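In response to a reviewer's request, we include the raw inputs and outputs for one of the modeled complexes. The two entities were modeled together in a single run.
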Amino acid sequence: MTAHARRHGHALAEYPPGDLAIWVFILAELLAFGVLFAAYAITRLKNLDLFNEMQLTLNRDAGALNTLLLITGSWFVARAVAAIKADRRHGAANFLLAGIASGFAFLVVKYFEYSAKFDAGISLDTNTFYMFYISLTMFHALHVVLGMVILGFVWNKARQGAYTAREHHGIETGASYWHMVDLVWIILFPLVYVMR
Amino acid sequence: MQFKSQAVSKPYFIAALGLFVAQILFGLIMGLQYVMGDFLFPHIPFNVARMVHTNALIVWLLMGFMGAAYYLVPEESETELFSPKLAIALFWIFLVAAALTVVGYLLVPYATLAKMTGNDLIPTMGREFLEQPLPTKLGIVVVALAFLFNITMTVLKGRKTAINTVLLIGLWGLAIFFLFSFYNPDNVVRDKFYWWWVVHLWVEGVWELILGAILAFVLIKITGVDREVIEKWLYVIITLTLVTGIIGTGHHYYWIGTPEYWQWFGSIFSALEPIPFFAMTLFAFNMVNRRRREHPNKAATLWALGTGVMSFLGAGVWGFLHTLAPVNFYTHGTQITAAHGHMAFYGAYVMVVITMISYAMPLMRGRAANSNKAQVAEMWGFWLMTVAIVFITLFLTAAGILQVWLQRVSATPMSFMDAQAQVSMFYWMREWAGVIFLIGLIVYISSFFIPGEEKAKA
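The model returned the following structure tokens for the whole complex.
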């Protein structure tokens, strides 16, 4: 609940959920990814053959597994919000931890995926497709890390019992950011790995 | 003024304004040299005038930031400055070093100055904006470290606020990135690559944090809006700044010999750099609209709003104009860059320092605000300088567009000097706008000498 709502005793339901500042940040992030995706799409149109050929060299299974992991992570985080609304404080903290663990598993998969590529001598300079592949996925992976940091911060407070059914603004703020990280991957995966 | 030690910022502000005058005078000299090539030759050649113009700007803004920090940090920390004596000593060291450097520029040929000051020990001279001789550069490091020590100790013993934290990160970043001015690789690509770590990561990175913190401080004081609200805005703004500005460095890496991917990174991220500046505009207007008190210092409010608008136009819009790689392919290093540089520096950093001076100076002189008459004069200064910079920017933009066309786009491209001759009319107009700017500056400075006080209303 915002300070404003707290002072004036407004009802619990608020929109958008979480802190308004995180939404400004989320929109800015989505804009940045949007521009990156548009740049990818336009460049792909100009180099269709190269992109179609190079796309086949990506590890689609790793991408699919990571999609599953992030969606699972988002489910955990959504459960955390539901749990705290029912005042189950321990449950909320545990669900947040499970969300962080999903992010960690995502990074492990990414590590093996990148290792294979880098061992094969692939870099930003290999070609335009790989320039986009590495930049887009790395940029996204950094957001997974940031999302984990935010969730970690919220988890730590939740563990100490800082949130209740009435006051769980922080959990909703963290959850909103985490869903953004998930959403971006759900667009990124088909765009770069699958669509032809 | 709540704490006695805040008064140490007064000499910093006075010296800053003195150097501001010097900067503008040398700007006018070199502006004239654009159209009268031998004006004041051989006494003040163009390269020397340019060096003094840009270095004086940087030094007076640094003086302004330091003055602002000395005023702001004790009040935010709710404690006296760790060592006011150190602050005063540093002021004199910095001022004397700056004066000696300018004298060196003016009296000795640059190459001789380099020999005299031990440039062969660690070659750092000869790079745009970082022309200072080695002793001056070392002096800057010493002053910056001692200054940071003083400020950090004050913050550590007092209240911790978001404004203090952001300001400290900005100031530490400023000092750390300056260290790259000592790194001057022989490889000219690497040289340029790291040179931007000072120049770009200052003005499009850490300086923006300093700007945000100062603006937030003054807005809290003049509007009385909840600290909670203002700090939230500040966090959003600095996050956006860092997300866009750091990788945005790439917009300087298009044509210097770095890999091609920088054209993508630079274009995409720097295209988003106007967003934090736009957020700053919204921030300033929103807070003033939601004000809970009528502060008697109307002039400071005007400067704060002016910073919000002009930084967005100068840094945001005029930066975006030529930031995309396909556009920059044609505009790189033309008068378009000069147009952007003038409005961005004025709109963001000159104005925020003057915002702080405008707010703090009357308090240090023992009044809530200057007399109505003095404030009216100050506002005349504001409008004359601001309108003049808008015209300087427009004339340089026109010169730049024409230059790009004649020299680079046309089917029969002209040589550099032929194209310069064709755009000279715009240089004359720019020079006259510069004269108006100087008049505005004189009016602004004269407002300090109009006595009297405007009392705070209950």
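As requested, we also summarize the result in words. The beta strands of chain B are 369-370, 453-454. The longest helix of chain B spans residues 372-409.
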